[in-house]
C-alpha cells in the first residue's frame, strides 16, 4: 500500500505537457521514461523539492532550488535531443511552458500589486485595528476571523487573507497560546476553503479557470466555480464547530490603536473590483485570456496613482479636514511621493512568482520526457476519476498543490464537469490537512512562530480530515447532476 502511494506521488509529480507537445513536434518526441535522462531529471527535481520543503529550517528561499533544477533538467533534455538530430523540439516545449507561466505570472502580479496598494493605504491595518478595538471575546474572535478569512480569500487570495487575520489574532491573543493555535488553524482552513470556490482565491483555481481559454469545453467557467460554495463552507464549518469548544471562553485584555485609511484607499478597492470584472468580461464575452483584462485593470491603478501624485502637494497645503492631518503624518514618515504604483509592483511576492516558474519548467521537463501517459493510466483509468481526485487533495497536503494541479490540467483526463469541480475542491482544501500543505499554513508558522506549529496543527488533522471528507460527499450529493 505504501509503495503504491509512493508510485502515485512519483507519477503525478512527473506528469506534464508530453502528450500535447508530441503532436506539436510532429511525433518526434523521444520516450525517456526508462532512460538515464529521465532518472536524472527525477532525481534533480526530488532534491530541489526536498530543499523547498525544508525552507523553514534552512531559510533558503524556495524559488532558488527549483529555478536551478529547471535549468539543469532542460539543458539535459535539449542536449540529448540535439545529439539525436532533434534541434527544435525542446525549444518548442519550453516556449509552450513559458507561455502558460507568463499568463499566470502576469495575472498574479497585477493582483499582488493591488493587494500591496491596499496594504500601503492602510486598508487591512484599519480592519485589524477596528476588530481589536471592539473588545470581542476569544470565541467571538475565533468565528469572526474565520468568517472574514472565508469571505475575503475569494477576492484577496488565501495567503494575504491568512496573514491579515493572523495579525488580528496575535494582537488580541497576547500570551494565550492555546487561542492563537486554534485560531490560526481555523484561519488556514477557512482561507483555503474560501479560495476553493473562486478563480481569484488560489493559484490552482486560477489555473483551472485560465485553462478554459485553450479548451473551453473541458474546464470550469467563472460562474460554475460557485457550485463549490456549500462544499467549501462545510469544509471549514465542520472542524471549526468542533474546535469551538476547545477555544478558551475568556476575554482578551487590552485594546488596539485606531488606524485610519489613507487618501484614495476606498477608490483603490473599487478599482480592484472593477479590474476583476474586466478580467471576467474579457474571458467570458471576448474569449480572451483573463490576464489581458487584469493588465488593463493595472492601467486603472496607474492612472489613479498619477492622480494621487499630481494632487499630493496641492492637498498637502490644505488646512482643513482629515486630509491635512493625514498628509502631515505622511510627511513625517518621509513620504516623498504620495503614491507610486511601481513600488507596489516591486513589493510583490517575487519568491512565490519565481518558485512558480521553477515548478512549471521542472514539471514541464519531466512531462516532456514521457511520464504523462503513465500517470494518466494509473490515476484516472485504473483508480477512476473520483478516487484519483480525492488522492490529489491528499497529495496537496504533502506536496505543493501547484505542481499537482498543473500536472492534472496538462494530462486533461476525460472527466465530467462535476469531476473537474471535485479536483478543484480537493486541491484547494487538501492543503489544510497539514500546516505545510498550503502557502497560508507555511506563512502563519513564520508569523506566529512557536505558537502555531506543525505538530500543533497535526493534533487537529483528524478533525480537518472530517471536514475534507464531508465537503467531498456534499459536492457529490449537491452537484450530482453535473457528474
Structure commentary:
It contains 23 helices and no strands. By secondary structure, it is mainly α. It has a domain at 104-346. Helix 5 (63-83) packs across helix 17 and helix 8 (138-156) runs parallel beside helix 10. The chain is globular, with a radius of gyration of 23 Å. Belongs to the NhaD Na(+)/H(+) (TC 2.A.62) antiporter family.
What are its keywords?
483 residues; mainly alpha; 0% strand; disordered N terminus
Structure summary:
The protein is mainly alpha-helical and 483 residues long. Helix content is 73%, strand content 0%.
Per-chain topology:
Elements (H helix, E strand, L loop, with lengths): L1 H13 L3 H7 L11 H18 L1 H4 L4 H21 L5 H32 L2 H11 L4 H19 L1 H16 L3 H19 L7 H8 L18 H15 L21 H20 L5 H27 L4 H12 L8 H6 L3 H33 L2 H14 L2 H11 L5 H13 L9 H9 L6 H6 L1 H18 L5
Residue windows where pLDDT falls under 50 for at least 5 positions: 1-27, 213-218, 318-336
Query: How do the SSEs run, as a string of H and E?
Result: HHHHHHHHHHHHHHHHHHHHHHH
Characterize the quaternary organization of these chains: single chain
Structural class, please?
mainly alpha
Instruction: Report, as a whole number of angstroms, the end-to-end distance.
Output: 29 Å
Instruction: Determine Rg (CA atoms, Å).
Output: 23 Å
Q: What amount of the residues lies in strands? A: under 5%
Amino acid at each position: 500500500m505504501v509503495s503504491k502511494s509512493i508510485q502515485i506521488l512519483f507519477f503525478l509529480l512527473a506528469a506534464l505537457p508530453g502528450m500535447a507537445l508530441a503532436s506539436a513536434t510532429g511525433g518526434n518526441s523521444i520516450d525517456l521514461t526508462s532512460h538515464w535522462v529521465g532518472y536524472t531529471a527525477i532525481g534533480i527535481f526530488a532534491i530541489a523539492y526536498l530543499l523547498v520543503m525544508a525552507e523553514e529550517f534552512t531559510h533558503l528561499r524556495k524559488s532558488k532550488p527549483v529555478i536551478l533544477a529547471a535549468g539543469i533538467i532542460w539543458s539535459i533534455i535539449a542536449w540529448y535531443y540535439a545529439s539525436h538530430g532533434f534541434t527544435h523540439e525542446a525549444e518548442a516545449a519550453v516556449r509552450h511552458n513559458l507561455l502558460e507561466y507568463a499568463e499566470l505570472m502576469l495575472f498574479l502580479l497585477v493582483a499582488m500589486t493591488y493587494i500591496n496598494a491596499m496594504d500601503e493605504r492602510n486598508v487591512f491595518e484599519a480592519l485589524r485595528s477596528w476588530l481589536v478595538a471592539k473588545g470581542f471575546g476569544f470565541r467571538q474572535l475565533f468565528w469572526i476571523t474565520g468568517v472574514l478569512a472565508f469571505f475575503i480569500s475569494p477576492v484577496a487570495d488565501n495567503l494575504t487573507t491568512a496573514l491579515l487575520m493572523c495579525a488580528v489574532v496575535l494582537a488580541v491573543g497576547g500570551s494565550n497560546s492555546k487561542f492563537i493555535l486554534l485560531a490560526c488553524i481555523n484561519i488556514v482552513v477557512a482561507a483555503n476553503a474560501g479560495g476553493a470556490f473562486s478563480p481569484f482565491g488560489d493559484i490552482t483555481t486560477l489555473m483551472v479557470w485560465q485553462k478554459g481559454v485553450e479548451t473551453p469545453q473541458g474546464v470550469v467557467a467563472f460562474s460554475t466555480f460557485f457550485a463549490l460554495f456549500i462544499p467549501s463552507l462545510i469544509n471549514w464549518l465542520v472542524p471549526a464547530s468542533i474546535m469551538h469548544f476547545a477555544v478558551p471562553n475568556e476575554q482578551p485584555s487590552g485594546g488596539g490603536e485606531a488606524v485610519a485609511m489613507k487618501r484614495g484607499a476606498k477608490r483603490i478597492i473599487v478599482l480592484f473590483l472593477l479590474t476583476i470584472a474586466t478580467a471576467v468580461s474579457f474571458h467570458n464575452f471576448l474569449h480572451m485570456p483573463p490576464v489581458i483584462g487584469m493588465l488593463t485593470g493595472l492601467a486603472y491603478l496607474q492612472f489613479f496613482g498619477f492622480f494621487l501624485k499630481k494632487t499630493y502637494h496641492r492637498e498637502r497645503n490644505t488646512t482643513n479636514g482629515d486630509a491635512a492631518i493625514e498628509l502631515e503624518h505622511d510627511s513625517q514618515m518621509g513620504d516623498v511621493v504620495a503614491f507610486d504604483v511601481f513600488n507596489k509592483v516591486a513589493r510583490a511576492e517575487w519568491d512565490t512568482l519565481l518558485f512558480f516558474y521553477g515548478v512549471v519548467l521542472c514539471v514541464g521537463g519531466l512531462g516532456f520526457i514521457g511520464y504523462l501517459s503513465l500517470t494518466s493510466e494509473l490515476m484516472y483509468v485504473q483508480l477512476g476519476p473520483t478516487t484519483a481526485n480525492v488522492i490529489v487533495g491528499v497529495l496537496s497536503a504533502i506536496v505543493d498543490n501547484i505542481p499537482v494541479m498543473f500536472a492534472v490540467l496538462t494530462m486533461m483526463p476525460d472527466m465530467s464537469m462535476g469531476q473537474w469541480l471535485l479536483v478543484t475542491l480537493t486541491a484547494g482544501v487538501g492543503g489544510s490537512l497539514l500546516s505545510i500543505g498550503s502557502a497560508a499554513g507555511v506563512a502563519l508558522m513564520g508569523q506566529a512562530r512557536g505558537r502555531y506549529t506543525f505538530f500543533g496543527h497535526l493534533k487537529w488533522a483528524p478533525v480537518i480530515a472530517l471536514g475534507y471528507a464531508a465537503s467531498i460527499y456534499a459536492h457529490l450529493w449537491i452537484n450530482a447532476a453535473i457528474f
